[in-house]
Amino acid sequence: MKPSPSRKASAKVPARPPLLLNFDDNRLLGQLFGEHDRHLARIEKEFGVIVSSRGNRVSVAGSAAAQQATKHVLTNLYEQARRGLDVGDAAVSSAIRMAERGAPHAHGAGKAMDEGWSADDVVIQTRGRKPILPRSPNQAEYIRELRAKELVFGLGPAGTGKTFLAVAVGVSMLLEGRVERIILSRPAVEAGERLGFLPGDLREKVDPYMRPLYDALYHTLPADRVARSLESGDIEIAPLAFMRGRTLSDSYIILDEAQNTTTAQMKMALTRMGENSRMVVTGDLSQIDLPKGVKSGLKEAVHVLHAMDGVGFMTFGQADVLRHPLVTCIVKAYETKEAESGSDDRS
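The structure corresponding to this sequence follows.
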């Protein structure tokens, strides 16, 4: 593969020796490069490099930093292809994000960058169609925290994968026999849990508020296995109010939307942990729906437990929100327009 004139002309390449990469199986390079080399074109545009290939050897021309970033993207995408995973636009976006934000000092991301974000310790094996891989350095570190610690707080905005990955790790531990059941809970109605006012039986009342948890389950397990597990109690989905008075042993417990718990509710939930249990608490402290004057149990728990040994914390930011590439471009376009409008308003 040789770079097309349009791609070659668009890249500004410093005069330095090209970086040479060798891939063992050149049959996988078609997936790596994408249809009509569209993955390469995107990588070149992102990093200002020129990529060319001969046989199983790939040459990357550009600045030293751009060469290393491109190396990480290509080697990680190649590893996905080698594992039989789909190397599509989402995978390329994730690889670019990992390369751009994978500085060694950032939350252990150096390990993820050196080993690839498909390193075994961050790959989640479930009964879903494909293994689950992190899509950002913070996600990779979050998975490590979930596997290493008995209590983990996942904090940040929607779309960062904090709940989905918690469910996926829980399912993998259930399948491995490390826990006997998964318990998924969240405040049922924002600050209130007033289920009695809703029509239907308990399942019909609870399901709309638990839908994100169901979605994660169906992504990691076949639908019939989810149904059987719910029926047998291997997986339990319940509003937070139903946790009171229980001791949950040999369990993997997820408390989702925890920013909408009160202090008393959070203390109650945290003290449900029994022998050989793990708990993950997720929430977005910028989206607290409690009545004015009521303190968020999640916010207080973070303050009280932040220095406690054995407790893990992972804070995601807006940069970790996973979007379709086109959505990212739309957001940037609106941000640019808003900045221009603000400038016009001041003139």
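The chain has two domains: 5-101, 132-322.
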